Amino acid sequence: MTESGGAAARDAGLQPERTRLAWRRTTLACSVTAVLALRTALRGSGSPVEVLGAAVIVLVWLAFLVVAHRRVRQLAAARPPGLAARSALAAVACTVALSVCAVAVIF
To answer: CA dist 21 to 29, 42, 60, 96, Å?
Structure first.
């Protein structure tokens, strides 16, 4: 079956649903990492550096939640668009920043 442009109609099947579930799992993993890093950061003496580290962890986690929520909402469309380069870069930056914060808190 062809559309007016001559291209074959694309049947996305369950791919958007699997991608949406993958974003949900990644969000859950990011949340667990943030909570564990916060718990470790706030167990110390409560110095300004520890509080600042906890604040950075929360901000990075919230930024990742925004990126993930936008993508999950996009995947609900009948023909979801591809992931924009800007969104992919933001997700990678949040993941790397959260990992760096978690390692910094441990040491």
So the answer is: 12, 31, 21, 21
CA distances 77 to 81, 82, 90, 101, Å, are 8, 11, 22, 35
Alpha helices in 1-107 (DSSP H): 15-42, 48-74, 85-106
**Beta bridge partner(s), residue 8:** 2
- SS3 state at 32: helix
Residue-by-residue pLDDT tens, the chain, 107 positions: 444 554 455 556 788 888 889 999 989 988 988 888 788 877 877 788 888 888 888 898 999 999 999 988 888 887 888 888 998 999 899 889 888 877 877 77
